[in-house]
Each structure stands twice: as structure tokens, then as C-alpha cells.
Amino acid sequence: xxxxxxxxxxxxxxxxxxxxxxxxxxxxxxxxxxxxxxxxxxxxxxxxxxxxxxxxxxxxxxxxxxxxxxxxxxxxxxxxxxxxxxxxxxxxxxxxxxxxxxxxxxxxxxxxxxxxxxxxxxxxxxxxxxxxxxxxxxxxxxxxxxxxxxxxxxxxxxxxxxxxxxxxxxxxxxxxxxxxxxxxxxxxxxxxxxxxxxxxxxxxxxxxxxxxxxxxxxxxxxxxxxxxxxxxxxxxxxxxxxxxxxxxxxxxxxxxxxxxxxxxxxxxxxxxxxxxxxxxxxxxxxxxxxxxxxxxxxxxxxxxxxxxxxxxxxxxxxxxxxxxxxxxxxxxxxxxxxxxxxxxxxxxxxxxxxxxxxxxxxxxxxxxxxxxxxxxxxxxxxxxxxxxxxxxxxxxxxxxxxxxxxxxxxxxxxxxxxxxxxxxxxxxxxxxxxxxxxxxxxxxxxxxxxxxxxxxxxxxxxxxxxxxxxxxxxxxxxxxxxxxx
Amino acid sequence: xxxxxxxxxxxxxxxxxxxxxxxxxxxxxxxxxxxxxxxxxxxxxxxxxxxxxxxxxxxxxxxxxxxxxxxxxxxxxxxxxxxxxxxxxxxxxxxxxxxxxxxxxxxxxxxxxxxxxxxxxxxxxxxxxxxxxxxxxxxxxxxxxxxxxxxxxxxxxxxxxxxxxxxxxxxxxxxxxxxxxxxxxxxxxxxxxxxxxxxxxxxxxxxxxxxxxxxxxxxxxxxxxxxxxxxxxxxxxxxxxxxxxxxxxxxxxxxxxxxxxxxxxxxxxxxxxxxxxxxxxxxxxxxxxxxxxxxxxxxxxxxxxxxxxxxxxxx
Lengths: 485, 315
Fold this sequence. Notes:
heterodimer; A: alpha+beta; D-Amino Acid Oxidase, Chain A, domain 2; 3 domains; eight-stranded mixed beta sheet; five-stranded antiparallel beta sheet; 23 strands; globular; B: FAD/NAD(P)-binding domain; FAD/NAD(P)-binding domain; about 25% helix
């Protein structure tokens, strides 16, 4: 059996960042994911904000990694060809007392090394954020805040890691880990993996994984966040990311700009027990609407086209990133809640250091392929470019999802790059993510997916086994061939 | 840039009727853009009968009704049809950009008729809380899966909404051997035609819950059940009336909304069948959602005439 130098558990943004960073070195690396595709856990409900580093406790690991990550993301997004937009953020104060708190936040953030911060007044706000509540009196402006597509970031990291030799195994839920000293045996339904080092990036389940080795120094408590996506028509609702003053446990309900244009409002913050409870509630919607309208009063609930809930893997107030004395070759990367996406490249560097200190030799490969090809998004390019694309490949003109303008070519490419499910295609291309929610394009996408993967339509799923879209294929039962579209 | 007398966006019943009418009124340079691989729009998947009673004085199926107009369009030399073509931009001065496999085309039209139909409201638009598993379909998507693709979406179905589409799809599922466990309607009575209540629901003994709504969807990977609650005259939930129905499929039939994104993006206001931009017209369900296709046809014939008059006056 192959002995891997490193097995990473969990293909979210943290696991894929670490996998890619380690793929610079001469190592055999396996990345295990329990779901059918990467990014299907905590990362899929990420808001896509690249935080500047404000709103972090002084002296925290996450504060330091956030500031460092904010810088690193710029470089990595260029290498991976994932769009990063520096839109800036505003933390809003509604009275003098809150304005004083802004000054405190500014001081704390500057101590962490956040640059460019300034307090802006009513007049500035009127000019630069016209839809903002006129009762706002001041804001802390952090120009280095930005937005990125969390899925495209994870998928590009995963693809790039694979390009550099990492092996990814999906549907490989870790059932047990045995420390056979000095190595580890990791048992999954797919097969047994042997590793010299294990990095635990299992998100909500990081405590369960750690417990398999008798290490139970922390517990992951899911904190649910419900988010509501508005129609792309409202793209210009806000020019910046807009925050209220943060509370002790959360950054509050925000107005979020997203990489795809649709504004998003949320999230809520609610402690839950069940690590799989992704349900939304009426109360959540009411709360988000009330809070979001306090920032931008004109928000209309009729513009909501989608909503979802995500779970933050919370453990105390800070990230847990450490080797465990009981098993020095086992590294926990746990409790990575906000600002985990921003911090992820910095987390990857930190983990490389920890693993090196614990005896793994990191020798650079002669060739590391740092760059990814750009994933084309038709909706994001001008018609002049569309023309060139169609000339190159006719199927760029074959539109499958009309709400978000996604072509057959983009969908086929997504499948070739690893999309295996309807949700995987949605996250990669935005097909089915628009206002009609897949009513018009579901059948066509199912067919492309089935054709590319050489599978019957019956087994096409929304997001993995158990979520098959249809129950019976009548046409093929009767010996027909189905329609061609 | 190519120029045309009249560009019509949408080759469903509205676009076809508008094209035929404009042609009959003297316009002989018409481009009809349709995104699907055939004309007819949503009629092609409506294999039940009941179409044409008012316009043709006959009972037709959806495809038959569409067929009548497809034949007319084919017989008119002044109408060019461009299939698999999707309009992506409209401007106030009537420039239409559309994509088709292998091509992006921009056409300058002297008049434009938008006949882009409507779309279904989704679960998200009526804010039903709970999980988001597989097994939640708009009624139209379920209809396409069954009637066009030969795929059965589910076996134990709850239909949300008692409009005609909901009623017809409830019957369709029963005919395909599925069990329709309930139709849940928030209003006190059906929103559909009485004949559909009789022919689709009563004849098949499907339970209907009026003044009820789905309060929550359950199921991790696939729909497992819904909770249903009674509402009072003000649509407030009645305490203590909650019950659950196990099912693997939820059909959303909660209404239609006109598809007017291109008109909106052009910064144009709809004013009856005309718009604030001279020479841009709207007809059929993209103007307003009609109960029956015969009314769509009437509306569109009228709009075809309006466009023809506009073109004559501006010659």
C-alpha cells in the first residue's frame, strides 16, 4: 500500500489551500473529502468576503492570519485566475457613541496592521454610498476589503493542487484513524490510506476526527447563518460591503456584494446542535430583513431569489492551528470560522511551518505550476469578447441557463474540470442560480452531465448519492431514445 | 449591422401570433427569434386538452394548438425563424443582440415585439423555510420532465398551489402512477378553472387543503416530508393546526410572473402593449399573465397590428 507523506482531511478552502501550498514540495499528498465534490461543506455557504482584518480581537491568531491572508489572496487569485475585487467595506455608526466605538475598532485594526483605514462622515457617505440609511452619521472605511467567489477559489485551488500532483479522493469519509506509530492508517469507505502526517481540516467534524486519536481538547459548535440572495438586477444596491457595528459573537447582518453581482443580505448567527442542520426559517428571514433595512432601507423582499443556511465551525473565540503533543505528526486546523476564507492562504503557510518543525522535510520541486487557466464566464465578458469566444468554439453561443447566461461550453468545461453533480455545476458556472432557479435549464444540464460522465439520467444527483433528481426513466423503460435537447 | 422591419423575440404562442398578424398586415421582413430548437414555447409540453375553445372553437392539445400557428408561420415567406437563438440585449433604439450556436448577431429593427412569456414563481419567492433537498420542482419543470423527457420526478407528491398548472400536474402524476398526497392552497378556493377542479382533482380523488400552507420542508438529500398549517382569513397561521405529510416530491405551482428582464434592462417602461420607447411592443404573457392561451393569441394579434401600423406611419 502506498504511504503518503501527508493526508489532508477535508477539501474545503482550508484543506485545498494547504494541499496546494504543500504541492510545491516533493511530497506524496492525498486530500480526502467526504462529499461528492470539494467545497460542499462549510465553504459552500461562505459569503465570499475578503476581510481587511478589522473586527478581530487584538492578539488573536485569526486577526494576524486575516491581515496576512488579505495580502496573499491578491497574489493567489492572480495565479489561479479567480477574480478578486477590492470593493472596500464600511462599518456604520448611527450615533455619537457608535462613532466612538469606530475609533476603537480603527485603533485595534491598525495595531494588527490593517492599512488605509479612515473614518468617513455623513457627507462622504451620501456621495459614495447613496442608498445607505440617511440616519447613518459616520463609518469606518476599510479600502482593502474585497470579494471573491468562494467556490471558484476552492475549485481552482483543488485543480491547481491536482496539477501539481495532489491526489483528491471524494466520497471518502474518514471513519477511523489508527496511529500505528510512526504512521497513521486512515479508514474510509473508498480504501485505507497510510500517511506519515495527517492534517485535520474537517470543518464542522474536526473535533470528531481529532477524537479518533484520543485528542479531545476542543469541541466544534455549529453556529448557523442564514443568507438571502437578491436578483442580479440589484447589483448596484451598494458600492461597498456594509457592516453594522459588530457584536461579541458576530459581525452582524451585512450587505454583501458578491463576485457574481447578486447582492446578498445576512447572515444570522444562531447556535445549533445538529452539524447537518442547514434549514432556513421564517424568523431568520424576518431578522435579516429588519437588520439589513436598517443599513439600506430600500431593500425589497420581492428581490430575494434564493436563500440558504451555512454552519460556522466555531470553537471558542480563535482558530485552533497546532500539532498535537500526543501525536506530533497530527495537525489540527479547527474552528476556522470567519475570517477563514481570507486567512486560508496564511493558514496554509503556517501549517507548512508547523509540519516542517515537526520533522517533515520540505524540498521544493523543480517545477511548480503556479497558474490556472481562466474559467470563462460569459456573463462577465463584453460582447466583443463573446464574439471571439464563439468563433473559437460555437457552443459558447449555445445558451443553456438564460437567467445567468451560461453556455453549453461552460457547462461541459465544468464537468471536465470535475463537476459531478447539479450543485457542482451551479457553484462553478452559476447555471440554475438565477431567478428561475433552474426551471428552464435543469433538463438540459442533466443531459450534458449524463453525456459527459457517460451515466444514465437516473443517477444524476443534486449533490451526491441520495439526492437523485428523478425517480424513474419511463422513456428508456419503453425502449425510446429521449429527445435530443 | 443587419436591419429588419420587425424583430419578434419569442416563438411561443404570443410571438407566432404577433408574427402572423404583422405579416397579414403587410409587414414582409420579420425575424422571429426562438431560444428552443422548435417553435411553440411551453405549449409543446402541455399535452393535455382544453386549448383553442375560444379562438379555434375546437378542443386541442397544446402541441396541436402550437402546430396550427407553426404551419401558418412556415407558409409566410416574409417571416424568417431563427431557432436556438437567445436574445441577450435590447436597447431603446431597437437594437437586439442575440446568441445562437456559432454566432452572435446584432440586428437593428424598425420595430420590436417582445413576446418572452413568463416564468414560474419559485419556492424561494414565497419564502418556504426548511431544508433545500432534491425533489422540489416547479410544476412546469416537472411537466417537461414527464411529457418531454419521459422522466418521473417522484412518486409521492405534494402540490403547492391550486391554479390550473397545479391541478393539471396533479392529475398528470396520478396518470403516471405516482401518488398525489395533497394539493395545498393558501386561498379559500381554487385559483384555477372549475372544469379543472372537476376533471383533475375530483375525478381522481386528490385531497385538497384550502386555507392551508406549507410551513416547512424537511429532508437532507431528498424531500422527506412537509409540515402543513391552516391559515385564517388574514393568512395568519392557526395555532394547533399543524400536521405533516410524508412525500418525496414537492411541486411548486404558485403563480407566474412576466419575463421582462430585457425590457427592464433597456430602461423602458411597459404601457399597455406599447412601451415608453417608440416602436417597442410587448404581448402575451410577458405583457400580463393570461389564464388561457386563446387570450394570449388575441392579445398578440392585436399587438402585431399595432406594430404594423407603427411601421406604416414611420415609413
